[in-house]
Specification:
CATH architecture of chain B: 2-Layer Sandwich
CATH class of chain B: Alpha Beta
Mean pLDDT of chain B: 92
Number of strands of chain A: 17
Shape of chain B: globular
Order of helices and strands of chain B: EEEHHEEHEHE
Oligomer: heterodimer
Number of strands of chain B: 7
Number of helices of chain A: 16
Number of domains of chain A: 5
Structural class of chain A: alpha/beta
Number of helices of chain B: 4
Helix content of chain B: 25-40%
CATH topology of the largest domain in chain A: Heat Shock Protein 90
Largest sheet of chain A: 5 strands, antiparallel
Largest sheet of chain B: 7 strands, mixed
Distance between the termini of chain B: 26 Å
Bound molecules: adenosine-5'-diphosphate, magnesium ion
Radius of gyration of chain B: 13 Å
Low-confidence stretches of chain B: none
Distance between the termini of chain A: 165 Å
CATH superfamily of chain B: STAS domain
Number of domains of chain B: 1
CATH superfamily of the largest domain in chain A: Histidine kinase-like ATPase, C-terminal domain
CATH topology of chain B: Transcription Regulator spoIIAA
Chain lengths: 556, 117
Amino acid sequence: MEHTQSKEELIKENSALKNELNDLKLIIEAVTGHSDGIESELLEKIHAGEKLFQVMSKTIPVPFFISLKDSGKILFSNKHAYQIFGYSAEVFLTKEMLDLYSDPKEFQTFITVLSQYGQVDNFEATLKKSDNSLLIVYLFSQPIVFKEQACLLTVIYDLTERIKAEEEKSALENQLRQTQKMEAIGTMAGGISHDLNNILAIIFGNIELSMMILPEDNEVQKLLTCALSAAKRAKEMVKQILDFCRQKEHERIPVKIKQVVSEAVGMIKELMPSTIQIKLEIEPQLSTIQGDPTQIHQILMNLCSNSAYAMRDTGGVIEIILKEVHKNLATTRIANPKPVSYVVLTVKDTGCGIEKTIMDRIFDPFFTTKPVGKGTGLGLSVVYGIIKSFGGTITVESELGKGAAFHCYFPLSSKTSDSADPTDIQKKVNGGKEKILLVDDEEDVLLIFKSMIESLGYEVITHSNSLQALQMVQKSKNDVDLVVTDNMMPNMMGTTLAEKILAIRPNMPIILCTGLDIQINKDHLSSIGIKGFINKPYSLQQLAFLIRKLLDERNR
Amino acid sequence: MQVQGDKYTIVYHSETATVRCDGMLDLRGKDGYTEISELFTKVLDQIPLPKKIILDIRDLEFLNSSGITTLGGFIIRLRNKGGIQLLIQCANKHSWQLRSMKGLQKLMSEGLELNFE
Ligand SMILES: Nc1ncnc2c1ncn2[C@@H]1O[C@H](COP(=O)(O)OP(=O)(O)O)[C@@H](O)[C@H]1O
Ligand SMILES: [Mg+2]
């Protein structure tokens, strides 16, 4: 029947086809228009992207360049990148990545890393500038597509500044180490000087005493004068050492060592690795010692860090023990060659121990068995110096492979030995155990007479400042048994000091030392209440006699 | 109803009779758009048919030429159903939409409204 389609039907079909054709036309138009529109929009975006890239590469202060992945030819570089190499942009764009390396082998490594990981991070490379000088950098490379080619974006991190900063830092550290060395020598010299001063005081005192006792025309006077001037030279030398180290004698105060040690141990525990255990054992009843808390910290730090080092591979235990002992130690402290009470601080470890052959050298400054950079060899010498300056001593027990124990002996601050062991001087005069306050503005005189009076068994407190001496008497309760004071003093005359002391302690026996050149009305002094006077220079015998006499009078 | 691709989403919300096209439509050729075309068919085969259908392309960033052809096909079929209004919601921020949608509007001289925001 198809061939007999009616005319109407044909017309209808025709118009439907026309409509369809029209639709197709419209769609084609729409598609073409659409393509043009979206194309131009995309182009705009590409241009905007390119512009952004240009702006970014100019602005960000990081040198980077883009190179072809296979040939390494440089396609793009920002200003920072070509400038860091000292090239112009044009010349830099003729280079390949390989040209930038000072060692082609290093470039090979770079390529290997890149192919292995797909990218490169923190690759340390030594590159070559246009003038062939070297540039040490970290490289960061990422594969990217640039202008439709497989490329590599490489960012350069210049290490020159950092290396310079590190060099400066290590120079500073060296300087610091040097300062520490000097400080250590200072501390040590300070300690030794203290001992020497004590020895010298005894030498001075005895020479001067001998000169006083002997008649002036005695032959031996000349020899003694000679000995005296030599001793003065020695004293001057000690002073020079102290000046050189800019070390004053540390002001020593009574220290509650218990507290100081537990505090320091608390700190040290924080610093120790977990493989090292710290045990602290403190006797409940402990006297105070004469010292400086920060220096006690230092002692513990130095000993514990040595112990920690000795146990660095094995781990182990550090035992810190604090107790009081009564002991006769062969120390250089001449004033006390008899059994004395000490507080002992022991630092004991389970480390590698110390070889017998080096035992007598470990306290030497700069003696170390540690590799360069690990030890200064000053730790123990500083400990030694500090303890000596406290008037104490240090001993060590150790066997190879069996750990080490360091014992630090600190003399007690208030009590001196009760068992007065008579010395040569003492045989001639009577001593005692009372507490005597000695006031004289000349430190040297104080030191000599302190040792001399101490050698009689008395306990001696000295003050070179009369005002401070007065304050001390005001604060203490019946602590001082007798006062010996110089008269001519800058802050307060001895007579005034005596008057003020007697105002609070009417029964205090006071001995005033006067120079021969000064006329003093002894009746006036007696009326104030001063019971004794002695003319300078006086002998120890004279002084000892007077002290004993006044003390006995008071007791009666 | 929904067609979800890596870079695009086509969703039909029947409550509002809205077809939403979001993202980048750059599928390959007529075959690439089969699934989307089927979604359009389902929209037009609904019973009852909504009086007004909304085509929301405000978040359509990119559309390639096969995509515009598919949309054109949808409009022709909708027009041939008769009696359905079409509102195309466009965005000025995608500047291609103005020119392209004006082109498509010619396929449906009555009952197609363009709204730009
Ligand atoms: N607790 C210890 N165990 C083993 N050896 C030690 C211990 N303390 C010190 N020594 C030895 O004494 C040496 C000197 O110690 P020190 O004066 O602190 O200097 P440094 O610690 O810098 O080497 C060390 O190098 C080490 O050989
Ligand atoms: Mg050390």
